[in-house]
Amino acid sequence: MKRTLAFVAAFGSIALVAALLATGTLLYAAPAIAAVAGAAVDPQIVAWGLAAAAGATAASSLAAGYAVAKVGTAAVGALAEKPELMARLLIFVGLAEGIAIYGLIISILILNRIA
Prior knowledge:
Blueprint: H1 2-37, H2 43-81, H3 86-114
Helix pairs in contact: 1-2, 2-3
C-alpha cells in the first residue's frame, strides 16, 4: 500500500510540474502570440487565456485519471465475480473518461474566445 501511495504521489507531482512548466511557457510566449493574432489583442488577455486553457485541460485530465482509477478498480472487482457485467462496467469507465473530454472542450472554447 505504501508503494502505491508513493507512486501516485510521485506521478502526481511530476504531472503538476509538467502542467506548471507548460503554463509558464505559454505565459512567456503570450506577447508573441498576441502580435501574431492582431494589434487589438492585449498580451495580458492572451496570457491569462492561455493559462486558463492549460489549467482547464490539466485539471480535467487529472480528475479523469483519478476517476478512471477508482471506477476501473471497482469494475475489475465486480467483473471477477460476474463476467456478464462487462458491457455495463465499460460504460462507467467511459463516463469517467468523459471528464477529460469536457475539459478539452472548455479549453478550445477559451482559445477560440482569445483569437
